[in-house]
Specification:
The longest helix is centred in the first third of the chain and has 26 residues. A hairpin with a 2-residue loop joins strand 11 and strand 12. The N terminus is likely disordered. The chain has four helices and 27 strands. It is mostly beta strands. The radius of gyration is 23 Å and the shape is globular. Helices cover 13% and strands 41% of the residues. Strands 10, 11, 12, 13 and 14 form a five-stranded antiparallel sheet that branches. Strands 1-27-26-25 form a four-stranded antiparallel sheet, with no helix packed on it.
Length: 374
């Protein structure tokens, strides 16, 4: 009888171990995106992606790229797995604005943040200035990760401060508490009432005055009224309407782990700063899919060195957290940097186009997009 009891106990333990292993495997399962097909764009690198709100119909999506060499803007209308049409325009030749300071509202309504004059310019496809508005309330943050976005006649850009030094502990806390990170400009309102500053930095930044080496938000306006705001090292997303906070919701990646703050004693260490920016995980973008009404939060995973000054390429990954229109997380899909890059994420009627990582062995240097169904 004792032997039977012992066998029963051992059998139960073994079964529990099997179930536990299965559950752990299920929890650790990595959902890899499956490619539907590829599309090659006839444009050689280097180029830069410029966001737009161009629209033709519900069967096409429009990609706008700026050639870095001649600064011309290339417009591609993507139909069902093909380039339906394309054309080139050259409105930026007379301006010093970079790609991240540009937004294409329509072919004859191109918005530029002109840093030299601290103004927003509205130009047409030939480069003629149709409107100029001098910014007076805030200081737009000039950084490739801080772009210009637009919804209708409203422009959004990250706000900053050129007085407070975020490298000094006390001034950084003052920055977090006092700087409103979103700069909103309503171009078609009365000139004296166009500008509005709003938003708050996350409590996770403020409570312990942590430095994550980023001081502006990701901004995703949609439907003309609402706006999503996200920060690089904060797991929440914040919903605003006309600059008023409505709610926040958790949208945490499975792969970021705990964010590591930048040490205050390394403020002058350039080599450490470079490693920190390269290795640390962060949320790098938020995209609204107008075709499915879904939201995509883009996540860079933590990188690792396999040897001195060399990344472990097999662990260089990023992911997209997919949310429905009610901000519920549906899934998180993982991508390999060796195959795809988050440089271009373009919703389309039949899926979402994501840029392929260039291969040094390819004979040409054209852009290739892969179509995924997330």
């Amino acid at each position: 009888m004792k032997n039977k009891i012992l066998i029963t106990i051992i059998g139960g333990i073994l079964m529990l171990l099997v179930i536990t292993c299965r559950d752990n495997n299920k929890n650790n399962h990595i959902l890899i995106a499956e490619k539907i097909e590829s599309l090659t764009i006839d444009l050689n690198r280097p180029f830069a992606f410029i966001p737009n709100s161009l629209y033709r119909d519900n069967k096409t999506t429009i990609l706008t790229l700026q050639s870095v060499l001649d600064r011309k803007i290339h417009v591609f209308e993507i139909g069902e797995s093909n380039i339906a049409s394309s054309y080139v325009m050259n409105p930026l030749s007379g301006f010093s604005a970079m790609f991240f300071q540009t937004y294409i509202k329509s072919i004859d309504s191109i918005i530029i943040f002109h840093q030299n004059s601290n103004s927003l310019l509205l130009i047409d496809s030939s480069g003629i200035v149709r409107m100029q508005h001098k910014l007076t309330k805030g200081i737009p943050a000039t950084n490739p990760e801080n772009g210009v976005f637009c919804s209708g006649g409203t422009v959004f850009i990250g706000n900053s401060n050129n007085v407070l030094n975020v490298g000094i502990v006390s001034e950084r806390l003052s920055y977090y508490k006092n700087v409103e990170p979103v700069y909103q400009i309503d171009l078609f309102k009365d000139k004296n009432n166009r500008e509005n500053l709003w938003g708050k930095f996350p409590q996770s930044y403020i409570s312990k005055n942590l430095d994550f080496c980023n001081y502006f938000p990701q901004i995703c306006p949609f439907d003309g009224l609402h706006c999503l705001v996200s920060f690089f090292c904060d797991d929440s997303i914040y919903l605003y309407k006309n600059g008023q906070g409505l709610s926040s919701f958790q949208c945490k990646s499975k792969y970021t782990g705990k964010f590591t703050p930048y040490p205050d004693n390394k403020q002058s260490d350039i080599a450490y700063y470079k490693d920190y920016q390269s290795l640390e995980p962060k949320y790098i973008n938020i995209v609204f899919d107008k075709f499915t009404k879904r939201i995509y939060r883009v996540v860079k995973h933590r990188f690792y060195y396999s040897s001195q000054n060399k990344f472990d390429v097999e662990k260089m990954r990023w992911s997209i957290i997919v949310m429905d229109s009610n901000y519920n997380v549906l899934r998180e899909v993982v991508f390999d940097y060796r195959n795809n890059s988050p440089e271009i994420i373009l919703p389309a009627p039949d899926g979402i186009y994501i840029s392929n990582t260039p291969n040094s062995n390819d004979e040409n240097d054209n852009l290739t997009l892969s179509l995924f169904n997330l």
